[in-house]
Design brief:
The chain is built from five helices and 16 strands. By secondary structure, the protein is mostly beta strands. The protein has a ten-stranded mixed β-sheet with strand order 9-5-4-7-8-1-2-3-6-10. Strands 11-15-16-14-13-12 form a six-stranded mixed β-sheet. A hairpin with a 2-residue loop joins strand 4 and strand 5. The longest helix has 10 residues.
């Protein structure tokens, strides 16, 4: 059984612009189950979403209609179960690369998608697969959860064996939140560097896979930067975010075991790269070297 979690994003003009939930997938050899959790959807009571699975074909995104979601609220939970017959055959089943939700018509159409892998596809240019399905999918709309209940759902830890890395033994005993302390005789630029995802190519080749770490990509999309610094004789890579126990469990499952907050003045950020929140900081993991200027 293959299990993993992916974030659900809103797309506009070919780019993902906002996180609106997440999708938990459990996939066996001949069957898959998606549990879709949405939050903050701009919907009215009469709105209807069409749900697609999709697979890449060259640079094209091919969508397979899996039915509609009716009476969707801004906060919802939805379960989809499908097998090879539901998507047109075994070959297509093995190629499924994510799910898409659409609402509206023409230029006012809204697009939401979760990708299993980070591949360059224009979600808004999806081509509908018109082949008839042998049998409709088994769908079940879960009872609409209260908002408080949905906020607790991310506590479900992703179980993605391919991406999970065992934390170092010492990390298991680290406090939930610590501060980055800059020695008074060292300048800020000598310790904390604001970097881009492309700068990760300056790490040793064995660590290049971090550029496709889904938790790192999520934080980078939201805040447009990463940080690299030295502390206590170790080199650290940091992903920006806001501390919350539920988010901590997700961060740890992707290898970012510690949360650190720089002191005031240690790093200057424009408004779009930070939160006005005392809990804003960085989910961190050790790496081989500091990526400096």
């Amino acid at each position: 059984m293959k299990k993993f979690v992916r974030y659900l994003y809103a797309y506009k003009n070919g780019k993902c612009v906002q996180n609106v939930g997440f999708v938990k997938c459990e996939e066996s050899e001949d069957r898959a189950v998606l549990q879709i959790y949405g939050k903050g959807f701009p919907v009215n009571g009469d709105d209807m979403f069409e749900l697609f699975l999709f697979y890449p074909e060259g640079d094209k995104c091919i969508g397979i209609s899996m039915g509609t979601l009716k009476n969707t609220s801004p906060v919802f939970s939805y379960r989809l179960e499908y097998d090879a017959c539901d998507v047109g055959g075994r070959e297509t089943f093995d190629r499924v690369g994510g799910m898409i939700l659409t609402k509206g018509q023409g230029d006012r159409k809204n697009w939401y998608a979760a990708k299993w892998e980070e591949i360059p596809l224009n979600i808004e240019q999806m081509i509908r697969k018109e082949e008839p399905m042998e049998e409709g999918p088994q769908e079940e709309v879960a009872e609409e959860p209260e908002e408080e209940e949905l906020q607790e759902e991310p506590a479900v830890e992703p179980e993605e064996e391919e991406m999970r890395e065992e934390p170092q033994e010492e990390a298991l005993h680290v406090a939930e939140s610590v501060r980055v302390e800059v020695p008074s005789d060292r300048k800020q630029k000598d310790l904390i560097y604001k970097i881009t995802r492309e700068d990760l190519a300056r790490l040793p080749r064995c660590e290049w896979k971090l550029a496709n770490n889904h938790f790192l990509l999520h934080g980078y999309r939201n805040y447009h930067h990463l940080v690299s610094f030295e502390k206590d004789g170790a080199c650290w890579l940091g992903v920006p975010g806001v501390f919350h126990p539920n988010e901590q469990k997700v961060a740890r499952s992707f290898g970012f075991d510690q949360f650190m907050r720089p002191d005031e003045g240690e790093i200057e950020l424009p408004a779009e790269e930070r939160e006005e929140d005392d809990e804003f900081g960085y989910w961190c993991r050790t790496v081989s070297t500091v990526i400096g200027e």
